[in-house]
Each structure stands twice: as structure tokens, then as C-alpha cells.
Design brief:
alpha/beta, 7-stranded parallel beta sheet, 6-stranded parallel beta sheet
Length: 382
Amino acid sequence: MESASSKRIVHLVSFNIPYPPDYGGIMDVFYKISALKRQDVGVILHCFSYGRGRSRTLERECLKVHYYRRELNLFHIFRKEPFIVVSRRNEMLLRNLLTDIHPIIFEGLHTTWFLCHKALEGRIKMVRTHNIEHVYYRNLALNEKNPLRRLYFNTEARKLERYEPKLAGANSLLSISPGDTEYFRSKYGNAVFVGPFHPAEVSFPDNGRGDYVLMHGDFSTAENNAAALHILKEVVSHWKYRTVIAGKRPSAELSDAASSLRHVKLVPNPSMTQMNELIANAQVCLLNASNPTGMKLKLINALTFGRHVVASPAIVSGTGLEELCHKAISPGEWISLTGSLMKEDFTSDMRARRNLLLKEIADNDNNAKRIVEAIKSYIPEF
């Protein structure tokens, strides 16, 4: 635990324990804490525990860490409030937030049960929006085969849409992409752009060429699994380029589809180092998704470590990074773009242009400064 002397301090309420930082939303929380620390901002972390243990790393990075049990009571499904919110209702959190008057950052709609609580009136309260949540949940439903889970996602989407206006009670919404910022600003008038926080600090793909195509992602989510299956069946099966599929918890269906193609290699559950090496050595990264909100961390990783990127519109829409990618919709476009890029060197000019835009959108220190400036607009002495 660090000394609080001469530090600016914020409370940060996280939907999960942000260590290890092994998936998109949690990476954003963890690397945000590190970046705020470099701006001389101390973090009092509050996090909900389910499936993860206490972390000494977090306890070193933060001034203090509070852990709360997430109440996964199935009867919450029948309440009018979203399950992801009501299951993170905890009176001890409110009591801990009331021990001082420091600004509060709520991570995601998930953690906002107390956002409009009368006891917090007059406090500076900000919400980090990782997605337009009801759009995200509708998309989960579209890609879900299990009828009960599909019903849950659709029901949760309706509840989230009804609940979302509560965000008007925040002083600022810290939106993760330019597109999401525009959406929240038009609805609630209180959104500022604060790009994604991530482990990759600067773009350094090698010049020249790689010799394979890579598709990577977290395949444990139905959306990513379905997106990868579509590309394998409709695109990859029509070429002979060596192709690598790498990611977390691939489904049996995805594993079978990959093993049926002789030129395809599946790398399940790679370490972060292994994944970065796979991206760095590829010639083309394929990124496919159907949910057009938020900011995909796999896009940041591909642009930081990789060479050419071919992506569906939903991956790049509203990110501000569109000009760094080649967009494909139909299988024919995926095939022809990949074919031409397999023959095209990645140049130092391409890398320089990429670094310039990544620094503007996805530089951790710049984004931490944006949070500090947002707080200073309410507390000039912060």
C-alpha cells in the first residue's frame, strides 16, 4: 500500500478484480490504475469478487483495495433492474465511499447501483462506459444458441436500456471510443472521450512481410466464437495461405472446423507473450465482430504489434482508427483484400502513420491526463 501524502486521490469501483489483466474490460481497468499512478493520482480500489482471488499486485498499485462479494442470487433475474447491476449492490461499498469526499469513477454500468444515491449528492461521480450495454447484450443474444441464455441476454438488454438514463446522474461519462462518446453525449450531454487503456505502449511491427494469416480473440464469448467460425467456413476454407487461429477457450465446434482444414493451425489459450509474438510475425490479422460499440482490445493489439489488418465494419466503426484498417464485408472482399496484402510489405511509413493515430486515440498516459482534466473541470485544485 502506498502513502497518500501529496497525492490526488480517486475511488475506482471495478466490476471484477482487475488482476490478472487477461481480458478486454479488465485490461482497461488495470492499466488505467497504472496510468493514473504515473499522473500522481492515487487509487482507492473497490472490486467485486467472483472467481478471482485477492491480489498483492493490486494492493501494491493502489492506496487501498476493498473486496466485495458479488451476490449471484438467481432471484435477482426476476427484478426490474439489470442483473449485472443488482448483483453488485453492496451497502459496505456505500459506507466506504462515504469515508471521504474524493471523486468516484464507476467502471461500467454494472457498478452504478449507488450512482444516484442521495448520500452521494454533491460528490464528483464519473462512469467509465466500456460499451453501449443494451446493444452489447442484444448482440450476445443473437449469437447465443442456448435458448435459456438467449432469453436471459434479451431480457437483460431490455432492462439495461430502461436503466441507462441513470447515467444522466454522473458528472461525466468517460467513453471508450469516439462513436460511443457521440452516442452518450447526444443522450445525456455529459460524455468525454477517454480512449482504451492496454498493455501495449507503442507500435513496433517489423517492416517487411510475415508468412501467415492470423485470427485472434477471446473465443469463450459466443460472439467471438461465431465470428471466427464464419471466417473459417466462408473465407479461410477458400485459400491455401497458412492460417493461425489463436485465443482463449475455443469451442469444440471451432476446434473441429480448424482441424478440418490442413492449412489451419489452432493455438488454444496462448500466453500474452505468445499471443503478441503470433501477432508480430503474421502478415495479415483478420478481425471480425458483429457488435459495433465500445473499443475492441484485439484491434489495439493488432495495430500495435501487427502488420496489415483486415476488419469487419463493426470492429472499426466509431473507433477513430478506421483509416489504419482494410474493411471487408462479403467473403469475396475478405479473400481479395487478404490476397493482395499477403504480397505487400509493411513499411516504416505505415508504422509512423499508425503510431501517430494510436497516440491520439489509445495512449495510456494521454488518456489518464484526460481523466485528470475531466476531474479538474469540477475541482480546479485537483
